């Protein structure tokens, strides 16, 4: 007999099983399903990745928002107090401005009233009451004008005037005035003070130093002492200032800052 296919028994003995062959249409379906599964898996992984990124972005935004809103909440909490301080400052400035304008208007009114009464009663004999009232008005006007001219000096350092307006802008005119103004010595003149008291301490010290360095030669007439000079020599017109009355002692001038001009003005 010719060769024949191995029997089932022989195949079992050899341990080899026949390879099952899948039909072609089933193979295409399996491949298509596997491809679809891979695409779905990749799409799902992309969705998970996007969701994780979006969650991290939301967390970061919420954290930044909390940081950004924290000062705002503090500012909102402090807003009433700040507005109250600003309102009080504006109210005080307005009050001071009103008082200044009112004082100026009252002074102008008093000045005009005095001028009218002087013109009205010119050449007329006034009673004692009218004369006293007119003198009283003149004295009030004089004192008010003197008080306006008084410059109050402050000992020590004074903060410069702010040239920033209430709207946060720079007032150029006020800034230039602050930059170019010169230091002024405080006026220490009081009632009955002499003209020398108006000078600063530095100026008085410089004047004393200058007067101390000036050499004043005394011209003397020829005396018996000068007449006994050697023949052929001219008489001595100048003499050395060696007597104690002409020596300016430093201690005395330091303890007595009043100059001769001040003494003469006082006398």
From TrEMBL:
<feature type="region of interest" description="Disordered">
    <location>
        <begin position="1"/>
        <end position="97"/>
    </location>
</feature>
<feature type="compositionally biased region" description="Basic and acidic residues">
    <location>
        <begin position="70"/>
        <end position="81"/>
    </location>
</feature>
<feature type="compositionally biased region" description="Basic and acidic residues">
    <location>
        <begin position="41"/>
        <end position="62"/>
    </location>
</feature>
<protein>
    <submittedName>
        <fullName>Uncharacterized protein</fullName>
    </submittedName>
</protein>
<feature type="coiled-coil region">
    <location>
        <begin position="100"/>
        <end position="146"/>
    </location>
</feature>
<keyword id="KW-0175">Coiled coil</keyword>
<feature type="compositionally biased region" description="Basic and acidic residues">
    <location>
        <begin position="17"/>
        <end position="34"/>
    </location>
</feature>
<feature type="compositionally biased region" description="Basic and acidic residues">
    <location>
        <begin position="200"/>
        <end position="210"/>
    </location>
</feature>
<feature type="region of interest" description="Disordered">
    <location>
        <begin position="182"/>
        <end position="238"/>
    </location>
</feature>
């Amino acid at each position: 007999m010719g060769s024949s296919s191995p029997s089932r028994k022989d195949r079992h003995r050899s341990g080899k099983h026949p390879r099952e062959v899948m039909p072609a249409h089933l193979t295409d379906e399996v491949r298509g399903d596997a491809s679809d599964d891979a695409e779905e898996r990749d799409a799902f992984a992309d969705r998970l990745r996007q969701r994780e990124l979006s969650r991290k972005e939301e967390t970061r935004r919420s954290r930044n928002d909390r940081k950004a809103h924290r000062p705002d909440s503090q500012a909102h909490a402090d807003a009433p107090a700040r507005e109250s301080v600003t309102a009080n400052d504006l109210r005080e400035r307005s009050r001071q401005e009103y008082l200044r304008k009112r004082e100026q208007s009252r002074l102008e009114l008093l000045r005009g009233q005095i001028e009218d009464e002087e013109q009205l009663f010119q050449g007329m004999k006034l009673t004692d009451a009218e004369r006293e009232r007119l003198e009283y008005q003149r004295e009030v006007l004089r004192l008010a004008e003197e008080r306006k001219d008084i410059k109050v000096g402050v000992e020590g350092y004074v903060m410069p005037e702010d040239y920033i307006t209430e709207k946060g802008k720079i007032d150029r005119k006020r800034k230039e005035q602050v930059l170019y103004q010169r230091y002024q010595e405080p006026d220490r003149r009081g009632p009955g003070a002499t003209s020398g008291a108006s000078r600063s301490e530095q100026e008085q010290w410089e004047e004393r130093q200058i007067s101390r360095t000036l050499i004043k030669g005394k011209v003397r007439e020829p005396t018996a002492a000068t007449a006994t000079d050697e023949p052929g020599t001219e008489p001595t017109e100048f003499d050395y200032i060696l007597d104690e009355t002409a020596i300016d002692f430093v201690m005395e001038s330091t303890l007595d800052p009043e100059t001769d001009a001040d003494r003469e003005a006082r006398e």
